[in-house]
Design a protein that fits this description.
CATH architecture of the largest domain: 3-Layer(aba) Sandwich
CATH topology of the largest domain: Rossmann fold
Distance between the termini: 63 Å
Number of domains: 3
Oligomer: single chain
Order of helices and strands: HHHHHHHHHHEHEEEHEHEHEEHHEHEEE
Radius of gyration: 23 Å
Length: about 425
């Protein structure tokens, strides 16, 4: 196991970057060697660092409030010191470590960060939390941002849109995400793969036609048959897309915003179709190609902006289009906890404008009588029903169809899946 001090220092650097407005992934990728052949201690440090980063950002609002309440400084501490305190508080409250270990290792982390002068301050604040943590926890219940661990504007938005479910939505956003598998129906049945898991002592519950929810997450590369393309990791909610497209053999299908490729692969696993997959990022297109190769699937993968149809469309309409559009990702924040602290209220309107632009462009390449599935991983109505309703009102003859599974358009995050919105639109013949 990597020393806690090293993990605290590494996590503090990354969390400080998030506080400064950078995505967490960029910091992690720039400093980590993710190869499978890395030494055990390096893997251990990466795992411990990632755990601290995610746990800290899931409770970021609470940790900020605690540090602000306990600090007696006339001005804010060094941003890196504050980030270290947030990470140390997360470690304390996780109860994975003895309190004295966290205090000792936080001091050592100060030295690793070149902040030895701050050791006394860090130690004093953490000890103050030890003494008065219970009373402070009670006081924090009155602070919505600290209690629900989301920005205040986000809390207010969810509460207004979901007066019956807002608490469960916010609570889900602070939890650990489930790990769900999608069985490759071209290579093995869901029942057979579930039996294979059971034979290796891996407990899994079937939650969809090809979906198996693991009782305990594990590295994807260690799943039986993963390298051979028997299975992929994909949230159960995301697996709703392919069946809702009403696919038929021989159809010409477009996945307009394809990366990272999970829905692309599910479409190809579900039906013999001619599929074109687009993404504006060439690097992410490469990832889609690699995924399809592992699964034994084939598609035309192109780096292109789906709204600039003149640069990629050959003039032949598509029978089916999947528009898994860019969005706030408010339905998957437990997987990316930095997102909720980097988003701003104005971002939702900006996403909605982009989503409308994508719908308008894709409608032009959809065949008469064809169907388009609009998908977001958002719980914000401005990106979901509002965008779809506005589009239907301005697109002559466009109509919204019931979804194949008969369920509601909005899937809220829960124990078995993330939050998604689906809308199936049909173009007049």
């Amino acid at each position: 196991m990597a020393p806690l001090a090293e993990a605290l220092a590494a996590a503090a650097r990354r969390v400080a970057q998030v506080a400064a407005g950078r995505r967490l992934e960029s910091g992690l990728e720039s400093a980590e060697d993710a190869t499978d052949n890395a030494a055990d201690d390096a893997r251990s440090l990466r795992a411990a660092t990632a755990d601290l980063c995610y746990s800290t950002l899931r409770r970021y609002g609470r940790s900020q409030a605690i540090v602000a309440a306990l600090s007696h400084r006339g001005q804010s501490a060094d941003p890196l010191v504050e980030a270290l305190l947030w990470c140390a508080l997360s470690a304390l409250e996780s109860k994975r470590y003895a309190d004295y270990t966290v205090l000792d290792q936080a001091g050592r982390a100060c030295e690793l960060l070149g902040l030895a002068r701050a050791k006394g301050y860090v130690n004093a604040l953490l000890r103050a939390f030890q003494r008065g943590g219970a009373a402070m926890a009670a006081r924090l219940q009155a602070d919505p941002q600290a209690r629900w661990q989301h920005p205040l504007w986000w809390v207010e938005c969810v509460r207004a849109e979901y007066p019956q479910d807002w608490q469960s939505i916010l609570s889900a956003g602070n939890g650990h995400p489930p790990m769900c598998l999608r069985v490759n129906a071209r290579r093995i049945t869901t029942e057979a793969y579930q039996e294979r898991l059971a034979a290796e002592g891996i407990e899994a519950e079937r939650v969809g036609p090809s979906a198996l929810l693991l009782a305990k997450p594990r590295p994807a590369a260690r799943l039986p048959g993963h390298a051979e393309g028997l299975v992929s990791v994909q949230d159960a909610g995301a697996q709703r897309a392919a069946p809702c497209l009403d696919l038929k053999p021989g159809q010409r299908v477009l996945d307009a915003c394809a990366a990272p490729g999970g829905k692309t692969a599910h479409i190809l696993e579900s039906a013999e179709v001619a599929l074109t997959a687009l993404d504006s990022d060439p690097g992410r297109c490469g990832n889609v190609v690699q995924l399809l190769e592992r699964l034994g699937l084939a598609a035309e993968v192109r780096a292109a902006d789906c709204t600039r149809t003149a640069t990629w469309w050959d003039g032949v309409p598509f029978d089916r289009i999947l528009a898994d559009v860019p969005c706030s990702a408010s339905g998957i924040v437990r997987r990316h906890p930095d997102i909720k602290w980097l988003r701003r209220p104005a971002d939702t309107a900006a996403f909605a404008a982009r989503q409308a632009q994508i719908l308008d462009a894709l409608w032009r390449v959809l065949a008469p009588g064809g169907k388009l599935l609009y998908v977001t991983c958002s719980v914000f109505g401005m990106e979901n029903g509002a965008v779809v309703d506005a589009f239907v009102s301005r697109a002559p003859g466009a109509r919204r169809l019931p979804l194949a599974d008969g369920a509601a358009a909005q899937l809220l995050p829960g124990a078995a899946h993330d939050g998604f919105h689906f809308a199936l639109l049909e173009k007049p013949a």
